[in-house]
Design brief:
The chain is 5% helix and 45% strand. The chain has 335 residues and is mostly beta strands. It folds into two domains: 182 residues, C2 domain (Immunoglobulin-like), CATH 2.60.40; 137 residues, Immunoglobulin-like (Sandwich), CATH 2.60.40.150. Strands 11, 12, 13, 14, 16 and 17 form a six-stranded antiparallel beta sheet that branches.
Length: 335
């Protein structure tokens, strides 16, 4: 459903703090593997976020109003911030819906509950403010009230960057099933270090050809949580390779109709610089879009694989031990 945005800035000024909840524990890794730039800026999180929640039982409609952020701090005390808030409704399956065929980096089995994004919204940008007043309201229809027990509201406060390298200043997470929101509830939460949600698996194939200095990246399958997707919903991936500080031209797969296990079986080829590979990072970004109408893409998740100066992941090691042979391995997809 399309988000509904209303300017309630005047009302926000009149609202007082009614409730301050303790932080709920977050789950999942603290960083997505594909966003190292954010990790360096998240050692200290400052500020809080004030918002209100309401579930209209008559219309089965969830209403979220982002009111104000306070005490934000950027990379330096003198930096001018341009904050905005990205909201996501994360729907998690039951504990029995777990990732299969996955081994963590230590080789031990790991069970993770898959999530999916039901709705995604974004507030307006407030320029030059460490205490921005938003007053943006969003709403979404739910089939029944019991869905709230599966939904976590995730709100990231970000500093806008014109090159889309938005820095995450912190986040707030609230499991909606733990709150009584049949009446409007105002909440103020301290920002926490952002966490990432596991949204799927990608079966990736890597092949290194040393003589021709080429790297073949094969996107074989993507497994996501089954949802009620539209018949015209498709997935595609954007694959970028950075080798020895040299960023190669990215490539895209063709779009494939989305299902629980989306089969691609597509191979993309990258020509590498002709000198020793000290570093090589492969970034896979998965997007969802619609084919029958003009709509913007929506990020599904990201993963990275490759070699650093002092370490390399298991998939890269296996590929280098078996040059000229494709090596396939499942990877976790985070958002």
């Amino acid at each position: 459903c399309a988000p509904q945005v209303e300017d309630v800035g005047t009302e926000a000024r009149r609202l007082s703090r009614c409730l301050s909840l303790g932080s709920f524990p977050s789950s999942g890794p603290s960083q997505a593997e594909g966003e190292p730039g954010e990790q360096a800026n998240l050692e200290r999180v400052h500020g809080s976020l004030r918002f209100s929640l309401y579930f209209d039982r008559l219309q089965s409609r969830l209403v979220v109003t982002v009111l104000q952020a306070e005490g934000l701090q950027g990379r330096s005390h003198t930096q001018s911030l341009q904050p905005f808030v990205r909201l996501r409704l994360m729907w998690a399956g039951s504990e029995g819906v777990e990732v299969e065929e996955f081994l963590d980096e230590e080789g031990e089995g790991a069970a993770h509950v898959l999530c999916t994004v039901l709705e995604e919204w974004r507030t307006r940008i407030v320029k030059d403010s460490c205490n921005p007043l938003f007053g943006d309201q969003f709403s979404c229809s739910l089939q029944e009230e019991e869905e709230l027990h599966h939904i976590t509201l995730r709100m990231e406060v970000r500093d806008f960057d014109k090159f889309s390298r938005h820095m995450v200043l912190g986040e707030v997470r609230l499991p909606l099933g733990q709150l009584k929101i049949s009446y409007p509830l105002e909440v103020q939460e301290d920002l926490q270090t952002p966490q990432k949600d596991l949204v799927g698996q990608v079966l990736l194939s890597l092949k290194f050809l040393p003589t021709s200095q080429r790297l073949e990246v094969g996107l074989l399958k993507i497994r996501t949580l089954p949802t009620e997707t539209h018949s015209d919903t498709v997935l595609y991936a954007r694959i970028s390779v950075q080798c020895n500080q040299c960023k190669l031209r990215h490539q895209k797969t063709s779009a494939v109709a989305r299902c629980q296990v989306t089969v691609f079986n597509q191979v993309l080829m990258f020509s590498l610089p002709e000198f020793p590979l000290e570093q090589c990072k492969i970034l896979v970004s998965v997007y969802e879009t619609r084919t029958t109408r003009k709509s913007s893409k929506r990020a599904i998740g990201q993963l990275t694989v490759g070699k650093g100066r002092s370490s390399e992941d298991r998939h890269w090691s296996l590929m280098m031990r078996s040059v000229r042979q494709p090596i396939a391995k499942w990877h976790r997809l985070f958002i």
